[in-house]
Amino acid sequence: MNSAFKYLFIRIFCLTAIIGLAGFDSPGQQALTLERALKEAEVNSPSIKQSLLNLERYQKNLEAQRAALKSKFSLSVAPIDYTNTRRFDTRFSEWYTNESFASNATFRVEQPILVTDGTLSLINRFGWQSSTAVFQGQDPTTSERFTNNLYLNYNQPLFTYNRLRLQLKELELSYENANISYAMQRLNLERNVTQFFYNVYLSQMNLSIAREELANTEKSYEIIKNKVDAGLAAREELYQAELNLANANSNMQNSQVNFENAKDQLKMYLGMNLFEDILVYADVEAVPVPVDLDKAIQNGLQSRMELRQREIEVESAQFDMIRTKSLNEFSGSMNLAFGIIGDNEKLPQIFDQPTKNPQVQISFNIPLFDWGERKARIQAQEAAIKSSELNLDEQKKQIIIDIRQVFRNLQNQLNQIEIAKQSERNAQLTYEINLERYQNGDLTGMDLSLYQNQLSTRKMSYAQALLNYKIELLNLKIQTLYDFEKNQPVIPAELYLNNQ
Questions:
Q1: How far is CA 186 from its chain centroid?
Q2: Distances in whole angstroms, Cα of residue 91 to Cα of each of 18, 95, 141, 278
């Protein structure tokens, strides 16, 4: 910017701040900058809170699954088990009455084996039982004994996929995906907050311009009124001046309404108190930033988190393929156990004559015919995998296209800024010249109003061009994950919650 334009820009900005402070200042009013708005949003924004809750859900699921891989200790107790029933003894073809009272407890330690998807268990069952049998014509017989069954058991699935490992990997990918979604939400939050913030700034500036326009119109009205009163101008000019004044006042009121609405939208998105008044301050000076298109595309393809999300979709589809292939599959199970059983009427002598109880069990599931169900489901899942891979390729192409569009928009915005700057300067000079003509009686009030409206429009157009350039710079940062203003990359991991 040259010195004359800098002076003009500073004058407009100062006028905006002074008028804003004069018109909106209140005891509860807060001055809000873009940096502070972003901090407010990261803490209070409903969208960020929702993303954090979703991230916490996946994090706790992953923690639970990892905890499930550790040894589990459990104790089940049945202190009372009493029965009194009539039974038939097939050995003697005779009915008898049996009364039984038992109390037992089972202590179990289970350790999942992640490498093999097996389960190693140490189990101890301890109990006491009293049983009385009464046969017809005989004396009752009673048996009271302590029993203890201690054994080590190992169960191993055969010829199938590792379900433990697959479930853990899926939860890890889900948590990574949630982290990526949170990081992307933070980037989108920055874009949305910036957009809402600049909307408020534009509305605030528009209001200050409308007030400046009203002040100029009031001044013009006083000039023509004095001329009409002195008989130096026709009364029709006064009528037109009154109409211009009413229009200027209406524009100011409309600008006030738009300003308040824009503030409410910003406060709602930031999660702020809706009854708290704010006044925004922004540095909208647009300094041209050099951008290397090849570097932007390369960094975008290397860093964009959407690509990792598509890769996760491909991996998840491959996991579904593993499950699909397990339908009607040939599989087996092996169960090995070894331990000792002891029983005695006296507790200290329970293991005087223990009995070994080894157990080996192998079983197989052999599918014979499924009418082509498994083959059809596998083909359907293969199509799903190809679709996910196609989405990954299309995402890469879309990233390149988006970065190119932003780059072109940046170059175009620089041109628009220069045009808008020159247009505002010309409109300002034109208005000042025609204001002097109006004061000399060489211009009608309707013509002056047109020049005033043109000046206001050019001021807003220039401000909009400056903000469009800054928004496109932010968009380039989001598209490439590279900050060309600071000339440094945006590391995706730094946006994750666990690195905050």
A1: 7
A2: 109, 10, 17, 95
CA triplet 65, 67, 68: central angle to 5 degrees?
65
Q: Is 283 exposed, middle or buried (0-12, 13-18, 19+ CB in 10 A)?
A: exposed
- Provide CB contacts within 8 A for 311, sequence distance 6+: 392
Pairing mode, if any, of strands 278-281 and 30-33?
parallel
Spatial contact of 481 and 304, defined as CB atoms under 8 Å apart: yes
The string of pLDDT tens digits covering residues 173-217 is 999 888 888 888 888 888 889 999 999 998 988 898 889 889 888
Selection from 174, 172, 110, 99 nearest residue 140 by Cα? 99
DSSP element (H, E) containing 76: strand 72-89
87 forms beta bridges with 96
Write the CA distances from 186 to 28, 181, 310, 478, 497, integer angstroms. Answer: 29, 9, 19, 10, 10
Residues 44-63: b if buried by 16+ CB within 10 A, e if exposed: ebeebeebeeebeebbeebe
Domain 3-60+168-313+387-499 fold: Outer membrane efflux proteins (OEP) (1.20.1600)
Listed residue (9, 16, 39) closest to 500, CA to CA: 39
| Distance in Å from the first CA to the final CA of the chain | 39
Q: What's residue 403's pLDDT?
A: 94
Residue 52 belongs to what H/E stretch? helix 46-68
> Checking phi first, is residue 372 left (phi over 0); if not, alpha (psi -120 to 50) or beta?
left
What does the block give as tokens for 383? 């199509």
Which part of the chain is CATH 1.20.1600.10?
A: 3-60+168-313+387-499
| CA distance linking residue 59 with residue 41, whole number of Å | 23
Helices (H), 230-287: 235-270
Strand 355-356, strand 331-344: pairing: antiparallel
Rounded CA-CA distance 93/482 in Å is: 90
Residue 157 in contact with residue 165, Cβ under 8 Å?
Answer: no
The pLDDT value recorded for residue 494 is 67
- Does residue 6 register a pLDDT over 90? no
Strands (E), 163-258: none
Tokens linked to 202: 């534009």
3-state secondary structure of 477: helix
Angle at 80 between CA 79 and CA 84, to 5 degrees: 160
Of 329, 370, 323, 358, the residue nearest 158 (C-alpha): 329
Give the span between the Cα atoms of 338 and 123, in whole angstroms.
10
